[in-house]
Amino acid sequence: MSTILSGKEVAAALTDALVQRTQALKDRGISPTLAIVRVGEREDDLSYERGATKRCEKIGVAVRSFVLPANASQEELLQVIDQVNRDPEIHGCLLFRPLPKHMDDETVRRALAPEKDVDGITDGSLAGVFAGVKRGFPPCTAQACMEILAHYGYDLTGKRVTVVGRSLVVGKPVAMMLLQKNATVTLCHTRTVDMPAVCREAEILVVAAGKAGVVDASYVSPGQVVVDVGINVNAEGKLCGDVAFDAVEPVVDAITPVPGGVGSVTTCVLVGHVVEAAERTCGMA
Amino acid sequence: MSTILSGKEVAAALTDALVQRTQALKDRGISPTLAIVRVGEREDDLSYERGATKRCEKIGVAVRSFVLPANASQEELLQVIDQVNRDPEIHGCLLFRPLPKHMDDETVRRALAPEKDVDGITDGSLAGVFAGVKRGFPPCTAQACMEILAHYGYDLTGKRVTVVGRSLVVGKPVAMMLLQKNATVTLCHTRTVDMPAVCREAEILVVAAGKAGVVDASYVSPGQVVVDVGINVNAEGKLCGDVAFDAVEPVVDAITPVPGGVGSVTTCVLVGHVVEAAERTCGMA
């Protein structure tokens, strides 16, 4: 029987702490505020927006929505971002991507002020997570993995950690954050030879492969801690991770479930970034 | 007997190719130009400047030096950088660091236009190497390692590579560049447990530990390729690497010497970035 690393439990603990930090800001006359900028009505975006808004309400962070039609021009979007950048009462900005095809992702990302980039999409944020310094914010999902490991008390110093996946939103940033915590980090991916062996030699395994159930029992070994970043829908229409939970859980020491794992922590991290951005404006962080 | 991976040979080949690309630019009326910005007269800086200037001359790239006294104000330095940014006839800028203590490194780095950042010090360059896209330029020493591996025909896809050292100028960027070439990359550092074992399991070992001779025979295994990034001066006043060459060379398949290895390629990479920056201005790269 392995320990189930509950994202919901982590989210609850983070929420409690954020409620207090938000109150401390309000006591100083600052109301932490998230701007949500969305172009169009993609179902994925709407679903994430609902979750983020609910979490903001719970914590006491204000939300201001800026919604543009799917056929809005890039110029219109850039004007909204400029407005967000200039407004001292907005501390963070969540900009949904991918953008419509007629917009240039890089131009739009560049327009956002790095200090309000709570979702980690600007060059400033990427450079910050790469350098291991507080500049902008790391991508929320990557940090959610770190929050789970921290909540459950894992000391990463000297630990061998294998990260499966090299995306810019999870694999690479989580590798840098693990390195910052003094882990010995191995990054593997679709071109890795004998990935099961590379995974088995780790003490901690972070899986962000983006493919349902790809990590089976052959990838794990006793004593391991497994963090499953994947969110997929299986043939029966049920949510599942990148790890074949039923096969892996009996082997390892601890594992995050899907749902109820990493995904449950992500919006908390986002709101935490808004609170930290607000704290930075008044020298509290 | 292992193969000696000669940095001088790589530098000669890169130089030949750069001479041709520079001529092609000149045929179009563009004279690739490097600005060297130096504050004070540190011996390390002067030595590197001599090497870079010599390499520029060999390739046909022009050099313009901007030298400020060690007690220059930050404002004066920012004015020089602004001048470099604005001058369309300057394509790249080498800014020597560390800066004097009375200057703020981040403020100064931020001032440099990323497209002229041929030494990979701006957030744009760091984000580019982290994301694996052409934005700014990677740090020259990290790329020098890649040039050596490329010149000697090593296909990195699926190879296990261990990088020793996690600095922002070598360890982290070379790890990202190796990943971009589809290697399975392990980053280790001073807090790694049993580093010799982590190194022995690699097929390619890149050593940027910053400590003379720290990688001895216990770190290597037969068949390995070893790239030694270190440049140290030993007790006898001789240049030596981070790898104990005499002990390691008989074990491994191939190794870069010090001197005559990675260090010999670095200025070529720098000048190559100037040429590429010039090419980018006219859509040739």
From TrEMBL, chains A, B:
Please list the residue ranges annotated as the Tetrahydrofolate dehydrogenase/cyclohydrolase catalytic domain: 5-119
The protein's job, in short, is: Catalyzes the oxidation of 5,10-methylenetetrahydrofolate to 5,10-methenyltetrahydrofolate and then the hydrolysis of 5,10-methenyltetrahydrofolate to 10-formyltetrahydrofolate.
Q: What is this protein called?
A: Bifunctional protein FolD
**Binding, NADP(+):** G165, R166, S167, I231
Q: What region holds the Tetrahydrofolate dehydrogenase/cyclohydrolase NAD(P)-binding domain?
A: 139-280
Q: Print the keywords alphabetically.
A: Amino-acid biosynthesis, Histidine biosynthesis, Hydrolase, Methionine biosynthesis, Multifunctional enzyme, NADP, One-carbon metabolism, Oxidoreductase, Purine biosynthesis
Pfam families given in the database record: THF_DHG_CYH, THF_DHG_CYH_C
User: Family per UniProt?
Assistant: Belongs to the tetrahydrofolate dehydrogenase/cyclohydrolase family.
**Organism for this UniProt entry:** Pseudoflavonifractor hominis
The UniProt catalytic activity note for this protein reads: (6R)-5,10-methylene-5,6,7,8-tetrahydrofolate + NADP(+) = (6R)-5,10-methenyltetrahydrofolate + NADPH; (6R)-5,10-methenyltetrahydrofolate + H2O = (6R)-10-formyltetrahydrofolate + H(+)
Give the EC number(s) under which this enzyme is classified. Answer: 1.5.1.5, 3.5.4.9
SUPFAM superfamilies named in the record: Aminoacid dehydrogenase-like, N-terminal domain (SSF53223), NAD(P)-binding Rossmann-fold domains (SSF51735)
Source taxon at top rank: Bacteria
What does the annotation say about its assembly with partners? Homodimer.
Question: Which pathway does this chain act in?
Answer: One-carbon metabolism; tetrahydrofolate interconversion
